[in-house]
Write a structure and sequence with these properties.
Strand content: 15-25%
Largest sheet: 8 strands, parallel, barrel
Radius of gyration: 26 Å
Strand order of the largest sheet: 2-3-4-13-14-15-16-17
Number of strands: 25
Shape: elongated
Distance between the termini: 42 Å
């Protein structure tokens, strides 16, 4: 029988916390925070980083086209916030210091949304049973005679413009049109392709304003993967050095490929060698239907439950969330569960019990990260929201499966390795080594795993095996290091001087590996993460000697710390 056991895992919070509170803590499940009016001061951003922000999200839905001063200021605040490197480089000459922290910055695109056009008045009051004419080609502010006057009665036709030119050819009789996050539902009565008018009946009442979202559940939309604004925003993001892009309204794998191609062109023009990773946002029925192909094309996935819960029946959201999280785990790609996780904390200092359960269950299901949106961007309690999210995540991280048949006679934490038979193999030999390392760490009660990596490949392979202890990833490239923040368990640190030479993917020259292992142990010791008698595993890839028959060697070293 499988049982749930509670195990208080040591040291699971955020690197960067703990000024005067002991060693900085390591993180398992990651926290994404959206920056906005409630969190755009140096002091508050530093506090958010200290309390557990792993990824800062910049929401470009609210950034005017071509206006980048505000997102640049937020990015600068994140980069300047003190983190673990601030502790390691205290007293080091400024020219030799590493970046203060390795928190990632993610640009979230506006995407190809459908929105309402300007009205005759600020608000149109829709009454249940109203005849509403939707259009994409008529300026309703200039045609009151056609029914655009919002003061007309419920027996008269009202006209509502949208910015989607293919509206009439996309919807059909009997389908629904949802306005303003689904608060108002319209049912299509008839479609006139000649005029582009779509006649609907209001199924419920409510006010509607300009620039509100329009959803067409179940419809296949004829929209580009990137708008002109998105392309300009991504170009800025590449030049500014963002680490990831959350691509909005991804509906098929071709959309992902279009985003990647544009980013690669921008990187080439900017002379940037490391492309921002692409996190595809699943927020439509079409995205759910094409999920397997989207996952294969993407670097990661965000389950954007806000629009998703409007586009599909809301009672199906949790099922699809679980399925997508499991698929991402098996593929070894990071997944973020997002939207309304602690929504009540925009106004209240404590979350509801339902919200606590929602976050905890997402972590237990296997999400790599949980996201705060309005809670930290516009809420009254941004810092309390991050503390609450970290607290819930730490508690959920401590829940493990108990296996009483474990060979060592003790409960074995739930780890996910190659023996599950479900993992997508990137590099079979490396995956076999990292799988063995994760199982060994669980069986022996190791304090942590150290990965020495240049491309991030070794660290990502470890994360795919879902280790129950933190992984400290010693990196040579700060862009790679920041991108590892999206993976559960990975805690990146930049090696002071990246002088190693390479002979293969993530393979360090043999003469450098001894030096790098020693530096790794010095670093985790200096930060107070290990003590005498602790067990530590080091996973690395060493290049073969010039006379060897192998190009490189994957290695696991088990160390028992004898003295500090």
């Amino acid at each position: 029988m499988r049982r749930l056991a509670v195990r208080h895992v040591r040291g699971l919070s955020s690197v960067g916390q703990g000024q005067g509170q002991g060693p900085p803590r390591l993180s398992q499940t990651k926290v994404v925070c959206t920056l906005g009016p409630s969190s755009e001061t140096m002091e508050l951003v530093a506090d958010l980083v200290g309390e557990g922000l792993n990824v800062a999200r910049l929401n470009f839905s609210h950034v005017p086209a071509g206006s980048y001063d505000e997102p640049q200021a937020k990015l600068d605040l994140v980069r300047a916030a003190p983190g673990v490197h601030s502790l390691l480089d205290a007293g080091v000459p400024e020219s030799e210091r590493r970046p203060p922290n390795l928190r990632a910055v993610m640009l979230d695109t506006k995407g190809p949304e459908i929105r309402t056009k300007p009205l005759l008045a600020e608000v149109m009051d829709i009454v249940e049973g109203d005849d509403i004419i939707l259009t994409s080609g008529t300026d309703v502010t200039a045609t009151p005679a056609t029914g655009g006057d919002p003061s007309c009665t419920s027996t008269e036709k009202k006209m509502l413009g949208t910015d989607y030119d293919q509206l009439a050819s996309t919807v059909k009789e009997g389908s629904q049109v949802l306005l303003d996050d689904g608060l108002i539902a319209l049912e299509v009565v008839s479609v006139d392709l000649a005029t582009g008018f779509v006649r609907t009946t209001a199924l419920n009442a409510g006010p509607i304003k300009k620039n509100k979202g329009v959803n067409l559940p179940g419809a296949t939309l004829q929209l580009p993967a990137l708008t002109e604004k998105d392309r300009a925003d991504l170009r800025w993001g590449v030049e500014a050095g963002v680490d990831a892009v959350a691509a909005s309204f991804i509906r098929k794998a071709a959309d992902v490929r279009a985003v990647i191609a544009h980013l690669e062109r921008c990187c080439g023009e900017a002379g940037r060698s490391t492309r921002p990773i692409v996190v595809s946002k699943i927020e439509s029925q079409e995205g759910v239907a094409n999920f397997d192909d989207i996952l294969e094309a993407s670097d990661g996935i965000m389950i954007a439950r806000g629009d998703l819960g409007v586009e599909i029946p809301f009672e199906q959201v949790f099922k699809h969330q679980k399925d997508m999280v499991r698929a991402c785990n098996d593929a070894g790609k990071p997944v973020i569960v997002a939207t309304q996780m602690l929504d009540s904390m925009q106004k209240n200092p404590r979350p509801t019990r339902a919200e606590v359960t929602d976050v905890g269950q997402a972590v237990i299901d296997g999400t790599d990260a949980v996201m705060l949106s309005g809670e930290t961007a516009a809420g009254k309690y941004p810092l309390a929201a991050v503390k609450a999210m970290q607290s819930i995540a730490r508690e959920a991280d401590s829940i493990v499966d108990a296996d009483l048949d474990d060979a060592f006679g003790a409960p074995r934490p739930r780890v996910s390795t190659l023996r599950d038979g479900k993992k997508t193999l990137w590099d079979p030999s490396l995956d076999a080594i990292t799988s063995a390392a994760v199982e060994t760490a669980a069986a022996l009660g190791a304090k942590l795993i150290i990965a020495i990596t240049s491309t991030g490949e070794v660290a990502r392979s470890l994360a795919k095996m879902r280790p129950n202890v933190p992984v400290v990833a010693l990196c040579t490239d700060e862009h790679v290091a920041r991108q590892l923040q999206f993976h559960r368990s990975l805690n990146p640190i930049l090696i002071p001087t990246a002088t190693a030479s390479f002979a293969g993917p993530d393979a360090f020259a043999a003469e450098k590996m001894t030096e790098l292992r020693a530096e790794a142990l010095r670093t985790v010791t200096e930060l107070g993460w290990i003590k005498s008698k602790d067990k530590v595993l080091i996973v690395d890839r060493k290049a073969g000697a010039s006379t060897a028959n192998s190009k490189y060697m994957n290695r696991v070293n088990l160390l028992v710390i004898t003295a500090i």
